[in-house]
């Protein structure tokens, strides 16, 4: 997952292949309208649908969205159950279309602790779309970057006990993360003006570009995504190397 092309250079007009979004601002969107937070979350699902639809037009092949963090359990119980309800609604209304349109769905995060029916929905969504390869949609749900790293480390410890292999390479750890197999992460977007990762994709973020947008998540869609992609394409990605230089003509 950390593997990169040897030649550093600009982001180029063709990327980003893999975009991750911290979908933030549902609550503030609702509060500004004097509406309950639940309305903001419901509109947030519509924004997710618009964004998934638009993503392939920008050359994006993989989209990872943060739906529920391991820390979001700290919210009042009604809001937690509201957010769980949205997963049921999203998957039941959209799974068929996602399957038809060639989208492979992956759920990142811990399966333990999820209500039984949600755990079932997660498995069904993955199984029904496992054959698809046109586009990959990863939904981080009950996900924390630190927990994901701990789980990957635990898998390596178990392997060491089983097979007596005590050396760890970067690829070994990356292979144990719940998003293993996705293209390298190019861009992390956070909406709502907050500028932090909130425990999202800590390992994968290593050389991702970060773009913070002031738009609240329920207002997100093709236009805001276009702006994030345009900002990404202006960046010069170096991966620790030298900035891309114009090639001088010989003689
Ligand atoms: C993001 O919106 C959705 C989730 C965290 C699930 P918030 O609910 O965090 O909205 P704000 O940040 O309070 O506005
Ligand atoms: C991050 O947003 C989690 C999701 C978008 C699912 P939060 O709103 O929970 O993050 P903090 O609490 O502001 O850092
Ligand atoms: Mg928030």
Keyphrases for this structure?
globular; two-stranded antiparallel ribbon; 251 residues; alpha/beta; binds 3-methylbut-3-enyl trihydrogen diphosphate; Undecaprenyl pyrophosphate synthetase; 7 helices; binds magnesium ion; six-stranded parallel beta sheet; disordered N terminus
Give a verbal description of the structure:
This protein is α/β, with parallel strands linked by helices and 251 residues long. It has one domain (18-144, 185-233): 3-Layer(aba) Sandwich (Undecaprenyl pyrophosphate synthetase). Helix content is 40%, strand content 16%. It has helices at residues 26-32, 37-54, 77-100, 116-129, 145-163, 170-175, 222-234; strands at residues 9-10, 18-22, 62-69, 103-108, 135-143, 187-190, 209-212, 236-237. The chain has a 6-stranded parallel β-sheet with strand order 4-5-3-2-6-7, sandwiched between helices. Strands 1-8 form a two-stranded antiparallel sheet. α1 (26-32) packs across α2 (37-54), α2 packs parallel to α3 (77-100) and α3 packs parallel to α4. The longest helix is centred in the middle third of the chain and has 24 residues, at 77-100. It is globular and about 60 Å long. Residues 1-10 have low confidence and may be disordered. Bound molecules: 3-methylbut-3-enyl trihydrogen diphosphate (2 copies) and magnesium ion. Residues 22-24, 66-69, 72, 194, 196, 198 line the site of one 3-methylbut-3-enyl trihydrogen diphosphate.
